[in-house]
Design brief:
By secondary structure, this protein is mainly α. The chain has one domain (17-82). Helices cover 67% and strands 0% of the residues.
């Protein structure tokens, strides 16, 4: 087993890199989850997908925080707010 790089904790070091493709996959999966759960309308989901594909920094930041901290609730809350047209609070 490889040792983690200096300056990283072992849990973060064992995760693969967060690539653009992986970021899209996570964000789109969350959008599907919000739509299926009735938390976003089809219109809101479409707006959220526009944010995702426009490389909105808020989406990227939310996914990165999810990736590092496994905070799915924060990811869903941020993406829900973007889909509803509100700034996340």
């Amino acid at each position: 087993m490889r040792r983690p790089r200096r300056g990283t904790d072992s849990e973060t070091a064992s995760k693969p890199l967060l690539t653009t493709r992986r970021r899209y996959h996570i964000a789109l999966g969350a959008a599907r989850q919000l739509l299926a759960g009735g938390e976003l309308s089809a219109t809101g989901c479409g707006a959220l997908k526009n944010h995702i594909f426009d490389d909105d920094g808020r989406v990227a930041a939310a996914v990165e925080i999810f990736w590092l901290n496994d905070d799915g609730d924060a990811l869903l809350a941020t993406l829900r707010a973007l889909g509803l047209g509100a700034a996340p609070g």
